[in-house]
Specification:
Elements lengths: L1 H24 L5 H10 L8 H6 L1 H12 L10 H23 L24 E3 L2 E3 L1 H12 L29 H14 L5 E2 L3 E4 L1 H5 L1 H4 L5 H5 L12 E4 L15
Parallel strand pairs: 4-5
Antiparallel strand pairs: 1-2, 3-4
Helix pairs in contact: 4-5, 5-6
Protein name: DUF547 domain-containing protein
Pfam families: DUF547
Length: about 250
Amino acid sequence: MKNLLLLIITLTMISCKVSKFKGESSPVSHTIWDSLLMAHVADNGLVDYQGFIQDSARLNQYLTALSTHHPNDKFWTEDEQLAYWLNAYNAYTIKLITDHYPVASIKDIKPGVSFVNSVWDIKFINIESRTYDLNNIEHGIIRKQFDEPRIHFAVNCASISCPKLQQRAYTAKNLDQQLTRAAKEFLSDSSKNKITETKIEISPIIKWFSGDFTKNGNLIDFLNQYSPVNINNNATIIYQTYDWNLNDTKSVGG
């Protein structure tokens, strides 16, 4: 009887541990982030940072959810993982700006070691037992683990020339549609890309990450999947100047 009781207790403890592990490994909900984006991002992608500051309790609640649900490739699908990291990058960028607001540019936020690291190297993101900076997430995880060039139109660096911050959270269910929409909207935005059949004046993002866009063909092949105009293969390519001013709905200090 004593051995049987001990066996029952042991099995119960194992069951509780397994249930806890499975619960922590389940994908996080992005509902709070979705509602924050709808409330504080304009149709043109500009961000009401003061609104996010006033809503800081809910933003912090979402970041807490992210910090306790690190993606797990044994339990999460690839789309669940990618949606998580895209949302995390954008949400923690908002957090970085609101913590230093008002600023004229994200680049005005100084890291610990000047001239060595950039703002994207500030390690302020804690997810379970791991610490990240924005570069870790974009280049060490998103670009490294996911063969998806459209992510460059989904991550937002809080600047005027960035692809706009979407008004909805990325979700596994709608991820392909959302990434296609982000790509098409960015290339159709004449303030960032001017595209004709014979000449394209495009964002330097395309140049910076050209290798990501040319894995399965040339650059024109990729652009023509999402461009509002069919571009000739011999079209002239010019890269525009990048505007690092903050993508704020309100003027700084206004």
